[in-house]
Write a structure and sequence with these properties.
The structure holds 2 protein chains of 2 kinds. By secondary structure, chain A is of the alpha/beta class. Chain A is built from 14 helices and 14 strands. Among the domains of chain B are: 117 residues, Rossmann fold (3-Layer(aba) Sandwich), CATH 3.40.50; 81 residues, no CATH class. Chain B contains 13 helices and 12 strands. The radius of gyration of chain B is 22 Å and the shape is globular. Classes of the chains: A alpha/beta, B alpha/beta. Chains A and B meet through helix 9, helix 10 and helix 12 of A and helix 8, helix 9 and helix 11 of B.
């Protein structure tokens, strides 16, 4: 009873807060996430010089990320594996609790809510995962899979309403409603991803976090799923947070792009600006690495070395070890995002000092 | 005579539900120092093609017909003993996942020396110096230290470099690379591909690159094969196929790429998905997904649904498609009448 009251207040507070920040739907402020590598308390104890010391190691997955997602846009988050892009997505969805920082949705802080308090937000924000082979429950039929979120979020709907909604959502993603009796394993990867999208759309969300939704699919199927996601955006006026490592997809799909490297955002720009005029040296290298069809041998900016481990972060700018423009300042001082003339935000000393 | 000649290769898998034909009528050649790309989606049979070249198809799969000739020797009928002299020595292979390829309990040095000593009678000292030389060629920093390290101590990109070094150890004539960069990040992928290309050019090594990434193929290879449902459907010079694809599937595949579309517009998609090999459509395996069959008064062209298309030559390319064949025939007739 008490919990119900709480959810109701959450719902009531929303509109007034909404007016203050009508532009951005989701705000991430100073987000940090550390994962412990050292196990529980007893595992952390070590003998060192005859004394018992507690030794802790952390993976610094996200180190102070600030992002705003505006209503109706598709914000793409790109970066290489281990840069923390999936962790950001999962923290936004409340699947991981952040170590520090705040996440607000429609003006209302959501990172500190209990799962029951989060329930009304879960209806408004849904997630699509990378691997459709793992994200569908193998023991549920497609019908059951699609009914489950509806039963949870619309407890007062009758059977017919639920059936109608399931049929409608199946049609909208291009699956035959007769397939409802089948199980996930009977479908191909592309069809499974359609079902996963249908599940996310079933509760009519306004915000969808898609974590590499097409990476596991073949080229011809990728186009189908990408088209489906764009159609859904137009029809339902959705806002996307789209996590991917594929820059060609970003160029096609994204309104704005945030480039991440080792747990920090190094550049945020509108898609057109980013592809036309990448500022951050990492963005430049990343763009030059896309294998293009047309030009035979592109000028590829070769980066030296590899991505450092997020366990022991480099001092200063996290990219300085591989950056061709790094100087002494880059090794010591952490750059912050600074707004450029055209609205692009870049975290780079070289850009700031106009060395680049 | 070409260095490698594959003709009419037919690979089948004897499964409980019957025989599945994983490859049919696959024919291609590779000249010395040439780089050939094999492209297709998952299930097209491109990896089976690569594995069968060295007779590495595991049971229940077997080569049911055709021939693979390397310098005139027929590899598919050769004894295991004879094959061992070719594998890793004259033709070496790079696999997709570097962690699966390297033995986790042997140091890098042991794995490299093992390979050298299996094929050549040389002292450990000589072997070591060859190994170090190859590690330098693939631009691995502090190679002496790497020889003592184990695979888990290295990053993905580094492991793939080690594997390239091992593939190059015995100065092979051909390297078969099966999705060598799929497991790697974009920037690392670009580095590894550039390295592989450079080394192949330097040492005049032939490369068979298997990938689903058309961008990579267009940058690295000179000729390419496009595979669909166990069959080659189009082959020819890479540039020509990329710039002017003939087969509707190749066209669809290229048009489906986001870089071919205007940002924000709908992508051109191929409807449906690749058929399962155990249940192939009749006639041209692509006909249920093909957009061109409905041209003649809304009905599918009977040839497409009934008859498996033969290869026709179109420019420098060879295409297996009834529609392309018809168009070429029409053009020929027009020229004859005029």
């Amino acid at each position: 009873m008490n919990a119900q009251a709480e959810t109701q207040t959450a719902v009531h507070v929303r509109p007034s807060q909404n007016e203050e920040s009508s532009e951005s739907l989701l705000q991430i402020r100073g987000l940090k996430k550390r994962f412990s590598l050292s196990g529980d308390f007893l595992d952390q104890l070590r003998f060192k010089g005859g004394r018992l010391v507690r030794h802790q190691e952390h993976v610094h997955a996200i180190n102070g990320v600030n992002l705003d997602i505006k209503r109706g846009e598709a914000l793409c988050v790109v970066g290489e594996s281990g840069c923390g892009k999936s962790t950001v997505a999962r923290t936004v969805m409340g699947l991981i609790t952040p170590s520090e920082g705040e996440i607000s949705y429609g003006g209302q802080r959501i990172d500190n809510l209990s799962s029951r308090q989060l329930l009304p937000y879960r209806k408004r924000m849904q997630m699509i995962f990378q691997n459709p082979y793992a994200s569908l429950n193998p023991r549920m039929t497609i019908q059951q899979t699609l009914e489950e979120p509806l039963r949870l979020h619309h407890p007062n709907w009758n059977r017919q309403q639920i059936l109608d909604k399931v049929e409608e959502v199946m049609r909208s993603v291009g699956i035959d409603p007769d397939w409802g009796k089948r199980f996930g394993h009977e479908f191909s990867g592309g069809q499974r991803q359609r079902i996963a999208i249908a599940r996310a759309l079933a509760v009519d969300p306004e915000f969808i976090v898609a974590d590499e939704p097409i990476s596991a699919l073949d080229v011809s199927i990728q186009a189908q799923v990408l088209n489906l996601l764009m159609e859904a955006q137009q029809e339902r006026n959705l806002t996307y947070m789209f996590i991917t490592h594929d820059l060609a997809v970003v160029e096609h799909f994204g309104t704005r792009v945030a480039v991440m490297y080792l747990g920090t955002v190094c550049e945020i720009a509108t898609t057109a600006t980013l592809f036309e005029k990448p500022r951050h040296p990492y963005t430049q290298a990343l763009l030059s690495a896309i294998p293009r069809l047309k030009d035979d041998r592109p000028q590829h900016i070769r980066l030296t070395g590899e991505v450092p481990t997020p366990v022991n972060l480099p001092s200063g700018c996290v990219f300085h070890g591989r950056c061709p423009h790094a100087n002494a300042r880059c090794k010591q001082e952490i750059p912050v995002l600074q707004t450029q003339d055209d609205g692009t935000r870049v975290a780079c000393h070289a850009v700031e000092e106009a060395r680049l | 005579m070409a260095l490698l000649e594959v003709s009419q290769l037919d690979v089948r898998f004897a499964l409980r539900q019957g025989e599945v034909r994983a490859l049919r009528d696959v024919s291609f050649t590779l000249e010395r120092g040439e780089r050939l790309g094999i492209v297709g989606e998952s299930g097209a049979g491109k990896s089976v093609a690569a594995f069968s070249l060295l007779n590495l198809i595991a049971k229940p799969g077997f080569i049911a017909g055709g021939s693979i000739k390397f310098e005139g020797q027929t590899l598919n009928t050769m004894s295991e003993r004879g094959l061992r002299k070719v594998r890793g020595n004259r033709i070496s292979m790079i696999f997709q996942d570097p962690m699966m390829t390297l033995n986790p309990v042997l140091s890098i040095g042991e794995q490299m020396l093992e390979c050298l000593k299996a094929h050549r009678r040389i002292s450990s000292k000589e072997a070591r110096s060859i190994a170090l030389d190859k590690l330098r060629q693939v631009q691995i920093p502090s190679p002496e230290k790497r020889l003592e390290q184990y695979p888990h101590e290295l990053s993905g990109g580094m492991r793939q470099r080690i594997i390239i070094a091992i593939a190059l150890l015995l100065d092979p004539d051909i390297i078969i690379a099966d999705e060598p960069t799929t497991a790697l990040d974009v920037t690392i992928q670009a580095e590894i591909m550039a390295l592989l290309l450079e080394l192949c050019e330097q040492h005049n090594v032939g490369l068979i690159l298997i990938t689903h990434d058309l961008g990579v193929v267009s940058q690295v290879t000179q000729r390419m094969l496009v595979m669909y449902a166990g069959r080659v459907i189009e082959q020819g010079p890479t540039r020509e196929i990329i710039n002017d694809p003939q087969h509707p599937y190749t066209q669809g595949l290229l048009n489906a790429l986001p870089q071919m579309a205007t940002p924000g517009e709908r992508l051109n998609q191929i409807r449906g998905s690749m058929p399962s090999l155990s249940n192939l459509p009749s006639g041209c395996a692509f006909h249920p997904r093909c957009d061109f069959i409905n041209r003649t008064n809304g009905q599918p062209r009977p040839a497409c649904t009934e008859q498996v298309p033969e290869f026709v030559t179109s420019g420098n390319c060879r295409v297996a498609c009834h529609m392309v064949a018809e168009m070429i025939e029409d053009r020929r007739l027009k020229e004859e009448t005029s």
